[in-house]
Amino acid sequence: MKKHAIIPIFISHRGCPNDCVFCNQKKITAREGDVTPDDVRSTIDQWLTTLDEVETVEVSFYGGSFTGIPMDQQTAFLEIAKDYKDRGLIDMIHLSTRPDYIDREILDNLKAHSVDVIELGVQSFSDEVLMLSGRGHDASCVYRACDLIKSYGFTLGIQLMIGLPGDSRETCRMSALETVKIHPAIARIYPTVTIRDTELYRMMERGEYQPLPLEEAVQRAKEMYLILEGNGINVIRVGLKASEIMEDQIGFHPAFRQLMESEIARDSMEAQLAAMSYAGEPLSLLVRANSRSFGNIYGHKGMNRDHFQKKYPRLRLKGALDESLKDGEYILTPEADLL
After folding, report:
1. pLDDT above 80: residue 195
2. 315-320: average pLDDT
3. How does the average pLDDT of the chain come out, rounded?
4. Are the CB atoms for 23 and 16 separated by under 8 Å?
5. Are 279 and 242 found together in one domain?
6. Do 242 and 273 lie in a common domain?
7. How many CA atoms within 13 Å lie on the side-chain side of 122?
8. pTM, whole model, 2 decimals?
9. For residue 15, pLDDT beyond 90
10. In whole angstroms, what separates CA 118 from the centre of its chain?
11. Which DSSP string do the residues of 258-327 spell out, in sequence order?
């Protein structure tokens, strides 16, 4: 049985001031035109016909800033989702918005309509990065919004971005550490993608902005991911989903999360080899991981296999499944010890 299914409702640019230099939501979601309440109902009905034997079904409003649209429109959408939840056809209602579009009136309405999860597009805790990115608010607004959301008992999510104008490895790390202080239940990490027809793209053309190289983006994401996960925050997404719309955008990689997880696996294996005082002698080792993490042993397109073959030509690493291990846990064992 599948554990979790998401019914996505895209409300591109709805509720957004459209001032962020990096954003073109219609390009990202491949949607044009405004979504109506009838669209919401028909989308949910269509998805429900495909979801058999799913433990948790969630309706998620993606794209714009949900709480920035007029209250009557928010209510029209939420009444439909709540109806499905009240009838037991869905289990959760999830939405995304901006920190400056949160107040008690808004949260009262969301609570009355049985919303479960609110994700905030925080992007950065650096005031300079927020200013240069055209966010229209500072970090103090983020803290206020997070405190309010948690006080109402909603599940809080925080979305962070890597490589915005004025960003650095230090500001990325700071943002991860500030997120830990707030301690949301979930988080997402997105590398900045330079999309055509955005101010960020024009800044790049004018030489005012340099997209982050992929290798550096992976390193920053890895450090942030380890900080968040190491402090009990579930990072539910790293990188954007692949689509034909995104394939040709600068900074997009369809396997960004696997690149990051492959590096984490490599670091773990290297550390264990160092602890064994491995000096390059012939050695055969099993690398154990569960089925969800197994592919990271060899890495994206065999990157870890190639790394170890080049660095340690007399070392033989062989993957082995071990479902007793946690996600992202890799254990090296001399092969003879398991015979």
Report:
1. yes
2. 95
3. 92
4. yes
5. no
6. no
7. 31
8. 0.91
9. no
10. 14
11. HHHHHHHHHHHHHHHHHHTT--S--EEEEEEE-TTTTHHHH-GGGHHHHHHHHH-TTEEEEEEE-TTSPT
